[in-house]
Automatic annotation (TrEMBL):
Pathways involved: Amino-acid degradation; L-tryptophan degradation via kynurenine pathway; L-kynurenine from L-tryptophan: step 2/2
Keyword Coiled coil: no
Enzyme Commission no: 3.5.1.9
Single GO BP term: L-tryptophan catabolic process to kynurenine
Species per Swiss-Prot/TrEMBL record: Archangium gephyra
Function: Catalyzes the hydrolysis of N-formyl-L-kynurenine to L-kynurenine, the second step in the kynurenine pathway of tryptophan degradation.
Record protein name field: Kynurenine formamidase
Length: 218
């Protein structure tokens, strides 16, 4: 029987800051202190202004389909439970062939560790060359009926791929998308995943905190 490990949790989300990269066309994140104790205020208060798709976040079906579920309708077990981190190396994009080697299973929560996680990407300017899924890779995951896919940059689709088509293929297949992970400290294998986006009514996505710890058998 499988059981969660007693080892510490690994935080695989990135810190939100005004300096973090954002996807071109999205609002520039602004996180600033608007009331400060040292300036005579009664409390420290921080103002947040950012896209629903800033930093580590989850995409909802309504992101690309009008009338579909918003992020507040996320089934809690879609992004919580047993998950598998797989390593997809290489300088190009994530292809269907690369994913086929890992034999994705129906309903599986699949987290893709690519070259993006070789560095602390959130401390660098936006990189158009980031690794993401090709359209064929999205088709393959839809055919395999995985339950959730997580990627280690700001979009599941490569920058020069057909991003709307990749998103629509996954979301229309009932696959929830986690974007903006950092998997540099997560070795390939099975984990317990907790990833919960903010419960923003009707939103097309929301920032999330994502945690992993090894899944063991006992």
């Amino acid at each position: 029987m499988a059981r969660p490990s007693s080892t510490p949790w690994l935080d695989v989300s990135i810190p939100l800051s005004s300096a973090m990269p954002h996807y071109p066309g999205d609002p520039v994140p602004e996180i600033k202190r608007v009331q400060a104790l040292e300036e005579g205020a009664e409390a420290n208060v921080t103002h947040l202004s950012l896209s629903a798709h800033a930093g580590t976040h989850v995409d909802a079906p309504v992101h690309f389909f009008s009338g579909r579920a918003g992020i507040d309708e996320l089934p809690l077990d879609a992004t919580m439970g047993r998950a598998r981190v797989v390593h997809v190396p290489g300088e190009g994009q994530v292809s269907a062939e690369a994913l086929r080697a890992h034999d994705p299973r129906p309903g599986e929560r699949l987290l893709l560790r690519t070259r993006n996680s070789d560095r602390r990407w959130w401390e660098l300017p936006f990189q158009e060359s980031f690794a993401g899924l090709t359209r064929e890779a999205a088709d393959f995951l839809a055919e395999r009926r995985v339950g959730c896919v997580g990627v280690d940059y700001l979009s599941v689709a490569g920058f020069h791929e057909d991003s709307p088509a990749v998103h629509r293929t996954l979301l229309d297949a009932g696959i929830w998308i986690i974007e903006g992970l950092y998997l540099g400290e997560a070795a390939p294998g099975d984990y317990e995943l907790i990833c919960l986006p903010l419960r923003v009514a009707g939103s097309d996505g929301a920032p999330a905190r994502a945690l992993l710890r090894p899944w063991t058998r006992g």
